[in-house]
Amino acid sequence: MANIYDVARLANVSTATVSKVLSNTPYVSVQTKERVLEAVRQLDYSPSLAARGLTNRRTYILGLVIPNDPDYLFTDPQLLEVIRGVENTANDNDYNILLSMANKTDHHSAYTRVLRTGYIDGAITVETFEGETPGKLLDDQGLPRVSIGYRNGLNPINSVHSDDYRGAYEAVKHLIELGHRQIGVISGPANFVGAIEERLRGAQTALLEAGLELNPDFLTYGDFTTESGYQASRRLLEVADRPTAIFSMNDRMATGLMRRARELGLKLPDDLSLVGFDDISLATLIDPPLTTIRQPSVEQGRVAATKLFELIKEGKKDFETIILPVELIVRGSTARLNPA
Amino acid sequence: MANIYDVARLANVSTATVSKVLSNTPYVSVQTKERVLEAVRQLDYSPSLAARGLTNRRTYILGLVIPNDPDYLFTDPQLLEVIRGVENTANDNDYNILLSMANKTDHHSAYTRVLRTGYIDGAITVETFEGETPGKLLDDQGLPRVSIGYRNGLNPINSVHSDDYRGAYEAVKHLIELGHRQIGVISGPANFVGAIEERLRGAQTALLEAGLELNPDFLTYGDFTTESGYQASRRLLEVADRPTAIFSMNDRMATGLMRRARELGLKLPDDLSLVGFDDISLATLIDPPLTTIRQPSVEQGRVAATKLFELIKEGKKDFETIILPVELIVRGSTARLNPA
DNA sequence: CTGAAAGCGCTTACAG
DNA sequence: CTGAAAGCGCTTACAG
Questions:
Q1: d(CA B215, nearest CA chain A) in Å
Q2: Nearest CA among A37, A51, A50, A49 for reference residue A7
Q3: CATH topology of domain B61-162+298-325
Q4: B16 CA to D15 C1', in Å?
Q5: Measured between CB atoms, does A281 come within 8 Å of chain B?
Q6: Which of B82, B92, B108 would you mutate first to test chain A, the one with the most A CBs within 10 A?
Q7: Per-residue confidence of chain B (340 residues) as pLDDT tens digits?
Q8: Dist. CA B199–CA B168, nearest whole Å
């Protein structure tokens, strides 16, 4: 393997110059630059991360901390999209990801490594359940950190999340505009930080604007799994004066409910309108295709990682909350209220 | 952050000695060792991977190459288990994983980084479809590599896989012992390297031993997804003289078939016996719980990674194929042939 | 059993 | 615009 000395020798310059060319420093003559680049090409040179890291005091590893167990994580398409976004940006920056599933009971866990001093240059933490975050431990180390989700704890943070409030508002408003008055909601878990509250608030705002309010009997809680959506049917579908439309706080729960509706002989969208949240790829594959709120999941990961690299590379110290826009995607699962 | 000099100073020894203690070299007096360890504790010292890597000419990164797109990967519980196994062992060895999904069209892909000279110390490649492997490119670099799956190409390799032949044999033999004669098979994709062939061979051996043979009409191919199992019903369940028992080459396809069977009004195990393969966690959650062949998925990942570390650390040059045992797990989806 | 010193491959003030 | 040299934090023969 060629090193920087080989390149310098071949290009007839010093290693300092090679280094400058490779890091795109200005003040290098065009001719020299070209000669160096040619040498790099000829030798198929790629700099040693270790040597670079030693000088720069960087590890080129970022921690991605997700406080769910792997079984859950790997069945949550939305979260997996977020990870992909982080991965993309990390790759662009030649960073590696240390994925920590915060499984505190597992001795093999990457969790302890993430927290080890000097092991990572920064971290992205996905905030889900209240209090359960290693965020504080990371902050105490003075490590750059960006949170995907809402602020969870006392520390000020950099965070990225979707416009949950607006999304829920648009979803319910859409149902109201179709003439629905009896609107049910499948919420996510109540101890989920931020997003659930915001979505509930958005839904309520839309109802209020139409002079309606959320019937407590029509509010049910799931845990984001398909199965919990299926279970939600008991309260929402299998009662006398059932809702004619339902807003589900994620798509998976919506598909669970859809399955139950089919079993009960309810036809979508004629007998029941349904709006989801997320716009996972499954949404277009089911019948009818699901009307939903698209949130930019991959983008969330990208934006969070980009922000993290700003903190790492430019040493920024400000705290910023980035809210990404969402969009109502109307498909086949919603329709005008059937007067029948 | 403390470095090795701080530790040496505090323990009143040279950095060479600190290094020796930390790498568990013999020939260090007990007293010195204890003093060093105490200093390490006091300073919360943890060695810089970069510095260590520079000296040892290691990156402490291993490539995990999976030739599926992320959408598929993240819905395959068996493959995810394998990844977890690799992750566990990598963590134990202070290695980081560069997950490459071999998405050649994606510019952000880790694929190119995996192939970059000097970026990784070794790789684990999951062999699935014929010919589609970066294995050769890695081998050409002289990189240590372990394959999970069967040999795919001309190069001799180190590989780890389950005893697919035996697993299929046990599955079908179980059905035969229950009195079944009309046995259907849902195979995985035909261009899948090794495993499918082996499982087919195992199934056929069991049939042959009982004086039976595989009815070509009862052999259908899926792509391992639940949906493809559902589709398989057309050939296997919706025909006049249908099989009374079915061996599905993975659990997900089995659940897809189960769903269709329910829709057709067939009761398991009374009207139909079903054996899967993998023993994913879902297998116990469905009704009836699935009889299946357990393959040690996490273990495959662990064994492959352990082997890889032998190659990396001890410079072994032999080629070994490790076959892991499988086990028939009898649950509620299989029963004695109903004479009715 | 212990330590002095060279070396791993970069980058970065600094001088010119 | 270019280069000599120090330094990042380890490990490893080698000498004692």
A1: 33
A2: A37
A3: Rossmann fold (3.40.50)
A4: 14
A5: yes
A6: B108
A7: 889 999 999 999 999 999 999 988 888 888 899 999 999 999 999 999 999 999 999 999 999 988 877 677 777 888 888 988 998 899 888 899 998 876 655 555 778 888 888 899 999 999 877 766 678 888 888 899 999 999 888 888 899 999 999 999 999 999 999 999 999 999 999 888 889 999 999 999 999 999 999 999 999 999 999 999 999 998 899 998 999 999 999 999 999 999 999 989 999 999 999 999 999 888 988 889 999 999 999 999 999 999 999 999 887 778 999 999 999 999 999 999 987 6
A8: 5
The model's pTM: 0.86
| CATH 3.40.50.2300 correct for A164-295 | yes
Residue that the structure tokens 């990156």 belong to:
B59
Q: Which residue is nearest to nucleotide D13 (CA to C1')?
A: B16
Omega cis (within 30) before A134: no
Fold agreement between B61-162+298-325 and B164-295 = yes
The H or E element containing residue B247 is strand B245-248
Architecture per CATH, domain B4-47, reads as: Orthogonal Bundle (1.10)
Which member of B59, B77, B109 has the closest CB to residue A91? B109
Judged by CB atoms closer than 8 Å, whether chains meet at A108 and B88 is answered as yes
**Which residue from A54, A108, A117 is facing B54, i.e. has the nearest CB?**
A54
Calpha distance A195→A149 (Å, rounded) = 7
- Nearest CB to B54: which of A50, A96, A109? A50
CA A314 to centroid of chain Cα atoms: 24
Helix (H) or strand (E) holding A170: helix A164-177
- Count of A–B CB contacts within 8 Å? 82
Task: For residue A100, report the phi and psi dihedrals to the nearest 5 degrees.
Answer: -115, 120
Domain boundaries, chain B: 4-47, 61-162+298-325, 164-295
d(CA A136, CA A154): 9
The protein residues having a beta carbon less than 7 Å from any atom of strand D are: A 12-17, 20, 26-29, 31-33, 51, 54-55, 57; B 1, 3-5, 15-16, 18-20, 22-23, 45, 47-48, 51-52, 54-56
Q: How near does any CA of chain B get to the CA of A172, in Å?
A: 30
